[in-house]
Amino acid sequence: MNIKNIIYTALMAMAMSACSNIAEDERLIYVEPATVNRNVLIEDFTGQRCVKCPNATVSIEQIQEAYGSDHVIAVAIHSGRFGFAGNAKYVGLMNDECKDYWSHWFEDSQGQPVAKINRGSATEDFSNWSSIVAEEMKKETTVQITLVNEIDMNSRNLHVTTIVNDPKQQDGKLQLWLVEDGIVALQLQPDGSSKMDYEHNHVFRASINSAWGEALDFNDGYSDHVSNYTIPEGYVIDNCSIVAFVYNDKGVEQVTKKKIEGK
To answer: What is the pTM of this model?
Structure first.
């Protein structure tokens, strides 16, 4: 039985149990879709040559300590004029997709660090990110995301199954990103020095279902998706996770993150 069927069967069992003692003429009463807490996505547009960016990283870590890293999910998108693509001597973390996201959201003159929080307005003032996150966490959503990651360690082929549940069946897209923790590489520091063994976390590596995701296609409140991706050599699989989020013109409706499970 696949994941969608398991979820559907469980929900139907609960529904049937709940209805068993209700009179026939009362069973078609409309019920407002259940709301759940909205997690928060921080898209941190950072750079290895950005002297202010390590302080922004500390701010993000403090926010995650306060609210939990399961509820505040950060992705470091190395980009902009302070991004570094690497050379023969040094590892770089900026790639073409990072450049595309930067070009979509910002002008070349945009300062860094800069964040988009749940796809709201961009803000460079990282001292204010915590209050923005707090406001976003007060909002509710009807969107829930179930994410299952499996990988064949020999072939490095990743298989991701995603179920989006939304009783309101709102228009939107599902985006799946590969991120990696624990990357040791160059980073300029606030005092202008170069730290060669700086540890970079939640680094954007790739979008695995196209740069802007795929449209949700609901059936009875569920939209199921299957994606496959081969993780390149050099990425440490045990340090990799999938970030899945649903967004629309209003912003990010829900986001979740799950480590990749080998077999």
So the answer is: 0.87
